[in-house]
């Protein structure tokens, strides 16, 4: 396999935070290949380095050592400007706390990445309307984030993350702030994304989320301690309720 076979490839990745006595090795010699279309779940105890790994993979942080490749391009040495461009165009981020722009409607939040990537307002509007329909929120397009439930906000955030058809969707505890019903709605979307061939990496403590993945890696002290292929590929119940398709 060469670097073009994996959408995401990580080699000998290390990240140290802080200086001197306070120095912490958050990620320690991690190797990973995420093939196109795979949903990978990353679990492990608090502080084991999951979020740091996700940030390194999406170009939000730079490694202390090692390599990150995205679709055959080595990204860890890119300039700030090139990294920002790559994050805008090729990576979709979903965060536990949604990170929506509070002054903008659901539709405007979803339009934003396409506008920032230089697409026309008309194309951005069309794409946002399509994505909001696909996450089941067409009727909420004009609502502001505070007028939406947590689950609806996260579905807007997922639609926003998909706006530029990212090579990879990186989700950090996407259900961490959600109740059971909202978690189910968001999980349904991830199951649908997997069915649609989207490459996804999800950091999660939630077993229900991990069970929707193709593969589960567990981390401890910055390292992978377990790597499991999930034969079940999610539950039949969720598979029957796919909202996002092809
Ligand atoms: N910016 C930073 N400066 C200093 N230390 C940091 C920084 N970010 C993370 N760390 C430390 O690096 C280690 C890994 O943190 P990280 O947030 O990646 O873990 P995590 O597994 O995602 O944790 P959680 O599940 O609690 O979110 C922890 O010891 C954390 O305190």
From TrEMBL:
Keyword S-adenosyl-L-methionine: no
A Pfam family: ABC_tran
SUPFAM superfamilies: P-loop containing nucleoside triphosphate hydrolases
PROSITE patterns, alphabetized: ABC_TRANSPORTER_1, ABC_TRANSPORTER_2
Domain ABC transporter as annotated: residue spans: 8-246
Name of the protein in its database record: ABC transporter domain-containing protein
CDD domains the record matches: ABC_MJ0796_LolCDE_FtsE
Source taxon at top rank: Bacteria
Key word Transport present: yes
Keywords tagged on the record: ATP-binding, Nucleotide-binding, Transport
């Amino acid at each position: 396999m060469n670097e073009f076979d994996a959408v995401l490839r990580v080699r000998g990745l290390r990240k140290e935070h802080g200086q001197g006595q306070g120095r912490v090795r958050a990620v320690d010699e991690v190797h990973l290949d995420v093939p196109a279309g795979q949903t990978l779940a990353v679990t492990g105890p608090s502080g084991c380095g999951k979020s740091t790994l996700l940030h390194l993979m999406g170009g939000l942080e730079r490694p202390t050592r090692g390599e990150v490749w995205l679709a055959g391009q080595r990204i860890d040495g890119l300039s700030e400007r090139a990294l920002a461009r790559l994050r805008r165009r090729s990576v979709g981020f979903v965060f536990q706390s949604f990170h929506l722009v509070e002054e903008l409607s659901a539709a405007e939040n979803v339009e934003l990445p396409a506008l920032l990537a230089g697409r026309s307002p008309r194309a951005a509007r069309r794409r946002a309307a399509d994505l909001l329909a696909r996450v089941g929120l067409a009727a909420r397009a004009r609502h502001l984030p505070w007028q939406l439930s947590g689950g609806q906000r996260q579905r807007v955030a997922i639609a926003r993350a998909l706006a530029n058809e990212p090579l990879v969707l990186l989700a950090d505890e996407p259900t961490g702030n959600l109740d059971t019903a909202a978690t189910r709605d968001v999980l349904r979307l991830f199951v649908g994304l997997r069915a649609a061939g989207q490459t996804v990496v999800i950091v999660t403590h939630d077993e229900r989320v991990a069970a929707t993945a193709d593969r589960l890696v567990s981390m401890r002290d910055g390292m992978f301690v377990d790597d499991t292929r999930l034969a079940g590929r999610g539950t039949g119940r969720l598979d029957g309720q796919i909202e996002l398709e092809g």
